[in-house]
């Protein structure tokens, strides 16, 4: 069988979200199914690190699809041409977009429908494209995969898609996220927080991540606890970060907030694993990978109700209303004052983290691919 894969998010040095999902799943799928030929379709020059085996053929179909007009051109003109040339039996696309101009069966991965729930957090031109074409993509795809039961229910509810068409494949944390020895944790704290304990948030600086409410919660925490604990924000500056950075400059406790900027994976693991706790107050997530990665590192988690994180973390996290900063602060105080609760959450987190793996995700995604060609 010839399986074509949209690999335009496999970008060396910039592997986030979709790209990491594609790398981890298809590295395993291509290895486990050497009898099939995989056509990896890139939209720009690629790195050889992403050609996982002899059964992978890479194809460049430019130009780079960087905005809605080029998305349309790439998926409806360039991709069908590649599928036809190589006689593909199925096309797999892991970024929520598929081709509307091919008869080749398609397996579509949709991570979430955040654009519907928080439209102000996306560029208007992108929002128009998502709103116009997402229902067409969902109907065109022969099978659909998503990363949580929460997202599956959302897709069914918003677009009336047959639930039988949608498989839940989950996601997973990076395997590098593991606990650190005490001495190494001490060194990390010396480097970033002058040796002080800290709460950590990992992820992009973006309105959807709800960091203004995190700052407000941290203010209440500091005022009530009179402690030298700090807050570390580890992630790159993403879309609409300017107002947050401006607010931080006049923030009362700005000396206790550390912004690391983008960190290489190895360093991000150290910063996560050395934290007192993670606070991840995102307004909307299809899965919430940082929550799982913190648990892998034996770091307790405070996160949001009303999104996928409750499904993923179960009883292994504390939950707060992301729209109410006082409830976030309450959970930070509760965790800080109760060491037994902290130990209990760490133990429960270890059990939860053990339920997820890229091997499992790859196997479930393969099932969805096979469903598309039946």
Structural topology:
Blueprint: E1 2-6, H1 17-32, E2 37-42, E3 56-60, H2 68-85, E4 90-93, E5 106-109, H3 114-117, H4 124-140, E6 143-146, H5 149-159, E7 166-168, H6 182-193, E8 198-202, H7 211-225, E9 230-234, H8 242-249, E10 257-259, H9 265-273, E11 277-280, H10 289-296, E12 301-304, H11 309-313, E13 318-320, H12 325-337, H13 339-353, H14 358-373
Parallel strand pairs: 1-2, 1-4, 2-3, 4-5, 5-6, 6-7, 8-9, 8-11, 9-10, 11-12, 12-13
Description of the molecule:
With 374 residues, the protein is of the alpha/beta class. It folds into 2 domains: 2-172 and 357-373, 3-Layer(aba) Sandwich (Rossmann fold), CATH 3.40.50.2000; 182-353, Rossmann fold. It is built from 14 helices and 13 strands. The strands form 2 sheets. A 7-stranded parallel sheet has the order 3-2-1-4-5-6-7, sandwiched between helices. Strands 10-9-8-11-12-13 form a 6-stranded parallel sheet, sandwiched between helices. Helix 7 (211-225) crosses helix 12 (325-337) and helix 10 (289-296) packs across helix 13.
- Using only C-alpha atoms, the radius of gyration works out to 21 Å
Mean pLDDT across every amino acid position: 95
| CATH top level assignment of the largest domain | Alpha Beta
CATH fold assignment of the largest domain: Rossmann fold
Flag low-confidence runs. none
The appropriate CATH architecture of the largest domain is 3-Layer(aba) Sandwich
Count of helices?
14
Could you give the distance between the termini? 12 Å
Q: Biggest sheet, in brief?
A: 7 strands, parallel
- What percentage of amino acids are in beta strands? 5-15%
Order of helices and strands: EHEEHEEHHEHEHEHEHEHEHEHEHHH
Number of individual domains: 2
Class based on secondary structure composition and strand pairing: alpha/beta
Number of strand segments: 13
Strand order of the largest sheet: 3-2-1-4-5-6-7
Q: What is the molecular shape?
A: globular
């Amino acid at each position: 069988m010839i399986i074509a894969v949209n690999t335009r998010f496999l970008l060396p040095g910039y592997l986030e979200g979709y790209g990491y999902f594609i790398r981890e799943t298809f590295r395993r799928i291509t290895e486990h199914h050497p009898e099939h030929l995989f056509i990896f379709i890139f939209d720009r020059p690629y790195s050889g690190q992403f050609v996982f085996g002899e059964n992978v053929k890479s194809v460049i179909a430019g130009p780079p699809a960087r905005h809605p007009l080029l998305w349309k051109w790439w998926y409806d003109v360039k991709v069908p041409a590649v599928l036809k040339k190589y006689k593909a039996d199925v096309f797999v696309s892991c970024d929520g977009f598929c081709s509307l101009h091919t008869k080749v069966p398609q397996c579509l991965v949709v991570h979430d429908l955040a654009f519907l729930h928080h439209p102000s957090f996306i560029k208007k031109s992108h929002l128009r494209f998502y709103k116009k074409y997402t229902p067409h993509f969902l109907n065109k795809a022969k099978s659909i995969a998503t990363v949580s039961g929460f997202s599956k229910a959302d897709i069914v509810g918003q677009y009336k898609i047959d639930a039988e068409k949608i498989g839940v494949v989950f996601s997973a944390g990076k395997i590098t996220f593991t606990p650190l020895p005490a001495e190494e944790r001490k060194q990390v704290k010396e480097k970033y927080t002058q040796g002080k304990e800290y709460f950590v948030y990992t992820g992009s600086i973006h309105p959807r991540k709800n960091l203004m409410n995190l700052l407000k919660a941290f203010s209440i925490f500091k005022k009530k606890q009179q402690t030298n604990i700090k807050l570390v924000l580890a992630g790159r500056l993403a879309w609409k970060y300017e107002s947050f950075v401006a607010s931080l400059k006049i923030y009362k406790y700005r000396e206790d907030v550390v912004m690391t900027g983008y960190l290489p994976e190895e360093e991000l693991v150290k910063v996560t694993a050395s934290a007192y706790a993670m606070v991840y107050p995102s307004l909307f997530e299809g899965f919430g990978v940082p929550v799982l990665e913190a648990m892998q590192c034996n770091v307790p988690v405070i996160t949001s109700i009303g999104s996928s994180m409750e499904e993923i973390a179960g009883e292994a996290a504390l939950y707060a209303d992301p729209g109410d900063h006082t409830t976030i602060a309450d959970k930070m105080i509760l965790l800080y004052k109760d060491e037994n609760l902290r130990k209990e959450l760490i133990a429960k987190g270890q059990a939860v983290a053990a339920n997820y793996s890229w091997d499992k995700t790859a196997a479930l995604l393969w099932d969805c691919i096979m469903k598309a060609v039946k």
